Known about the structure:
By secondary structure, the protein is an alpha+beta fold. It contains four helices and ten strands, in the order ααββββαββαββββ. Strands 3-10-5-6 form a four-stranded mixed beta sheet, covered by helices on one side. Strands 1-2 form a two-stranded antiparallel ribbon. The N and C termini lie far apart (148 Å).
Amino acid sequence: MSQSPALNMQTPNPMKKKIITALIAVVVGHMGVLWAVGQMKTPELKPIEKEPLKVRFVKIQEPPKPLPPKPKAEPKKEQPKPKEVKKVEIVEKQLPPPPKKVEKVQQVKKAETPKPVVKPVEAPPKPTVTTTISETRAVKPAPVAPPAPPAPVTPPAPAAPPSPKSVSIGGSGVQWSRSPKPSYNNNDLEGQTRTIVVHIEANEKGVITSAHISRSSGIPALDDKILRSVRSSKFKPYKENGVAYPISADQPFELTLNPHG
């Protein structure tokens, strides 16, 4: 009853053949599809013509700004009319001649002696009219001489500048606004300490107007250096009760040796 090994070996062969046949059919089918696809013509794509975009820029106008209201015209001020100046003519009026005075003469008889005629007392004559018995005659006034020109006024002499006040330097006296800074060395001192006193005069603004040596150091070149430094300096204005005055003062200088040379 048992099958032989030969039958067992032949049983799977038909199945393998079917499988191989199916694989071959699939491969052949794919190759056919590929060949058909390769034979197909690629469709020509027509280029799409696009018209270029036309862009137009439009300027947006802003609405016009309202004009500011015009300022109201100020009413013109009427210019005052110039006042008419009335011309007044000066007319010299002549005094009317006074009435003629008639002397009354009393008639006397021939037998009687004539009596002296008494003349009436006349008023003192006016400056413009003289009166006589017979007639009155107007006399023109004498011409008035023009007034003499006023004498020239001589300008007042300028006030003399106040004399400089003698003050001290520093403390309650005058103060430096730019103090002197003399420059010297041990060679200028010639090996010893020197003392110099400078007499200074300044105006009311503190500007130094004069400086001279009142006590010399004994070395003219050293004195000149000190004077140059003093003349380039300046005082603060010296005031008393708010009034500035010129001043005079003495400034001593003690020049010592420099240990460092």
